[in-house]
Design goal:
8 strands, alpha/beta, about 325 residues, about 40% helix
């Protein structure tokens, strides 16, 4: 990857301080989630739904009447059963998927095709922050796959096999949980896209921001390609939920875990509170006719110019297609 500047997310300590500062800034709130923002008869797929932010979103959307499909690696069936019990919903199902394994994603989509499910809302939430690099079954770096490539493959497969509910009266919504750290990288490492690299904890936060840049760029390019006329066909939304008290830092060094747990508990927002922008994008009529939008917590912002640049988006799309072709992943 290109050399990085010392930005707001260049190290774990700086990233934590930046996140805490953001919570205390005075920002203009984009809108409110209303009690009558319902999802009755809407099919919703959410990844990483068995814990943390994803679980909080899943529970809220079940309460709002969604036909909820939870895509998880663990917590099957107990977390789905828990949501059913808490919300009283009878329309909660679970798919088993390992987002670090591209074949596992293909297998899940095959199940969706067989069940003839067409989704109205896709929420790509799952992410990891490993302590060091790890190889996936396809020989790629795990954080690159889970935080970016898996989302690309999932969305492309669902579109290819017409598993998205596209109608004139209902515009599907694609929601990507990104991060303000997507602004930190100086640029794209086109030559190294998908190449495995060794790294340790000191490099993790920097790469996390880079993969969020890839994700945000993909989301913007997806909107551009699917909304080719004046009237939006779909809505593509990205967001940063701010610092969330989850287990995303569970691979931190053992001696640091007690301190991080205390900091997360005192300063970071609960998953239920941090879920607000995701739920807003999934349910609010305020964004019915938007083709693309980005929220930082609940404040509207422009994404980084690198991510909104059409040439970067086109190049990322094309290079990702070439990578998957080399891996013999058919989308």
């Amino acid at each position: 990857m290109t050399e990085q500047k010392q930005g707001k997310f260049s190290s774990p300590a700086i990233a934590i301080i930046t996140g805490i500062k953001d919570l205390f800034k005075e920002n203009v709130k984009v809108g409110e989630i209303r009690d009558d923002d319902r999802l009755n008869n809407k099919n919703v797929l959410i990844t990483g739904a068995s814990s943390g932010l994803g679980y909080a979103v899943a529970q809220n959307l079940a309460e709002r009447g969604a036909n909820l499909y939870m895509a998880c690696r663990s917590g099957i069936p107990e977390m789905g059963d828990k949501i059913k019990k808490i919300t009283g919903s009878k329309t909660v199902w679970m798919f088993s998927v390992d987002l670090s394994d591209l074949y596992s994603i293909q297998a899940m989509v095959n199940q969706i095709i067989k069940k003839r499910i067409k989704f109205d809302i896709i929420i790509c939430n799952a992410a990891i922050v490993p302590k060091s690099s790890r190889k996936t079954k396809q020989g790629l770096e795990e954080m690159f796959v889970v935080n970016y490539l898996a989302k690309y493959v999932l969305i492309r497969l669902l579109l290819t096999h017409e598993c998205i509910h596209l109608t004139r009266t209902a515009k599907p919504r694609f929601i990507f949980v990104s991060s303000e750290s997507h602004r930190d990288p100086k640029g794209f490492d086109w030559a190294g896209l998908g190449q495995y690299q060794n790294y340790g904890m000191g490099k993790t936060v920097e790469l996390y921001g880079y993969y969020k840049l890839l994700l945000t760029s993909f989301a913007h390019e997806l909107s551009r390609r699917l909304n080719s006329n004046n009237s939006p066909n779909v809505s593509v939304f990205t967001l940063c939920p701010g610092p969330v008290n989850t287990r995303i830092a569970r691979e931190a060094p053992y001696l640091l875990k007690p301190l991080l747990k205390l900091i997360f508990m005192i300063f970071f927002r609960s998953p239920r509170k941090a879920a607000e922008p995701v739920i807003y994008f999934a349910t609010s009529h305020d964004v019915d006719n938007k083709s693309f939008d980005y929220l930082h917590i609940m404040t509207r912002k422009e994404i980084d110019p690198k991510a909104s640049n059409h040439e970067n988006g086109r190049r990322l799309w094309d290079n990702t297609e070439l990578l998957l072709r080399d891996l013999q992943i058919n989308i």
